[in-house]
Design a protein that fits this description.
NUDIX_hydrolase-like_dom_sf, Nucleoside Triphosphate Pyrophosphohydrolase, 348 residues, alpha+beta, iron, hydrolase, DNA repair, glycosidase
């Protein structure tokens, strides 16, 4: 078909030089696909190199501790991906003797692997004719064929998967999948694509109908919740501090943080002082409380906006099992706390 011929020709002339495109090793392809979920290539690339250096095989990743994995993942976000990655590595190493499943359907049984990731591994590693359908593919196909189906609906995913399968050359599905994703990432971009230089500008229905900016259609709105975090940085007589692990389900599961006072709104010194003295640290002698005002940030997650304030609490006593500044940097933290520590704003 003319569509896939033009698309693949464009790809061969314009594709980026990415390390996971130089291998059919399912371990490396799996790593890259998990890392690139909801993550830009430029952000994910250093992590891919770090992981393949630290954990060159699935056995190395399986034998690592969860804290090692989370520390190396620090800053990439969506930490459930890292935890699932680690659990799946253990399963493949122990139960499958290091051998990845070799079909789309079998890959779906792996923890953290959905239809998109399974299709990517199956086509890139094993040349199985199964299409990948991600945001890039939705955008390219909806514009080219003027499809107004709501991409937030499961039925639309099936519609686009069927269409992509029909367009795909069955003897070389891997290059087609790479090409259509790359085309969406580089040429048919979400905002202000340069349609005048597009190889499909003579046949794209959205361009002909002046609907490029209106497609794809996505009705689902993400509801954003505002949360207010006050991190309390204890500093004892030895200059040590205290941290805790987030064990509850939700954001940052199994990462570390300073003692947390969560409130319903931004609070002032008087509120924090009373909470610290009366409840949270009533067993300590409080020498001083100071807001690290320059460290106040709004940290935006997909469904939550975190309004974060940091407070330094000086105490007279010595913290049992206190953590010194050098030890502090070895723990896996959410990136917003890690950046605070790196800037040494713990000193305020």
């Amino acid at each position: 078909m003319d569509f896939h011929n033009k698309l693949i020709k464009w790809y061969l002339q314009n594709k980026r030089d990415l390390p996971w495109r130089k291998t059919t090793n399912p371990y490396e392809i799996w790593l890259s696909e998990i890392m690139l979920q909801q993550t830009r290539v430029a952000q994910g690339m250093p992590y891919f190199f770090a992981f393949t250096k630290e954990f060159p095989t699935v056995f190395d990743l399986a034998n690592a501790s969860e804290e090692q994995v989370l520390k190396l993942w620090q800053g990439l976000g969506y930490y459930s991906r890292a935890r699932n990655l680690h659990q799946t590595a253990k399963y493949i190493a122990a139960d499958l003797k290091g051998a990845f499943p070799q079909s789309f359907q079998e890959l779906l049984n792996l923890k953290g692997v959905g239809e998109y990731t399974a299709a990517a591994i199956a086509s890139f590693s094993y040349n199985e004719a199964v299409p990948v359908v991600d945001g890039n593919v939705f955008r390219v196909l909806s514009r080219y064929f003027d499809l107004e189906s709501d991409i937030a609906l499961p039925a639309t995913k099936k519609e686009f998967t069927k269409l992509a399968y029909e367009l795909m050359p069955k003897d070389n599905p891997a290059i087609f999948n790479q090409a259509i994703m790359e085309f969406g990432a580089l040429q048919c971009v979400p905002k202000n694509p340069n349609c005048m230089i597009c190889v499909f500008n003579d046949s794209c229905l959205a361009l002909q109908k002046k609907k490029v900016d209106a497609l794809p259609v996505k009705s689902k709105k993400v509801k954003v919740t505002n949360r207010f975090f006050n991190y309390l940085i204890l500093e004892d007589a030895l200059g040590n501090t205290s941290i805790q692990k987030r064990t509850a389900k939700g954001i940052w599961h199994n990462l570390y943080e300073f003692p947390l006072l969560e409130t319903s709104e931004i609070v002032d010194f008087n509120y924090v002082s009373k909470a610290v003295s009366d409840n949270m640290f009533s067993s300590y002698t409080i020498l001083g409380i100071e807001e690290c005002s320059e460290a106040t940030v709004i940290h935006k997650l997909s469904h939550q906006h975190l309004h974060i304030q940091f407070w330094k609490i000086k105490i007279k006593e010595v913290i049992e099992n206190g953590i010194n500044p050098q030890q502090l940097k070895t723990f896996p933290f959410p990136i917003v706390i890690y950046n605070f520590i790196e800037k040494q704003e713990i000193i305020c």
